[in-house]
Amino acid sequence: MKRPSFLPVFIGTGFGSGFSPFAPGTAGAILASIIWIALYFLFSFTTVLWITAVLVIVFTFAGIWAADKLEPYWGEDPSRVVVDEMVGVWIPLLAVPNDENWFWYVIAAFVLFRAFDIAKPLGIRKMESLKGGVGVMMDDILAGVYSLILLVGARWVIG
Asked: How much of the chain is helix, strand and coil, in % rounded to 5?
C-alpha cells in the first residue's frame, strides 16, 4: 500500500510526537505545552497570547486537513494523529495569567484538558461522531474549551 505524504504525517502526528509508543495523545499534549512554555520565555506575554490564538486557528484547519489525508491510510481517528491534542491543550493555555503562578496554570491546563479528553463528558464524545478530520479535531477542541472555562473560573475565584 502507498504511504501517506510527509506533510500530513508531520502535522497530524504533532511533529512526530504521535509516534510515541506510550500514550501518544499525552505526548502530543506535552509537546504543545513545552512549545507554549518556550514561547512564554521568548516573547512578551501579550505576544504569546496572540501566537497561541493563531496556533489554535491554524492547526485546527491544518489538523482537519491532515486527518482527512491520513484516515485512508491509518483508519478512522488514528491514535498517531495528535494535532487535535495539541490544539486542545493550547485552548486552555489562553487562560494562563502573567504572574508568579503561571506555571501552575500550565500544569492545570494540561491536566484538565487530558481529563476531559479521556473521560469525554458533556457532549465531547458526541463530537467524535462527526465525519473525518472535523470529528478528529472537535472533541479535543470542546475538551479544551471546557478546560478554558474552568481555568477562567479558577482565576476569577482566586483573584
From this structure: 75, 0, 25
User: At residue 57, what is the residue type?
Assistant: I
Q: List all residues 6 or more positions away from 66 whose beta carbon is below 8 Å from its beta carbon.
A: 7, 8, 9, 11, 12, 81, 83, 133
pTM of the model: 0.96
Give 49-92 pLDDT, tens digit per residue.
999 999 999 999 999 999 999 999 999 999 999 999 999 999 99
The three cell numbers of residue 136 are 478528529
CB atoms within 10 A of CB 98: 12
Amino acid at 107: I
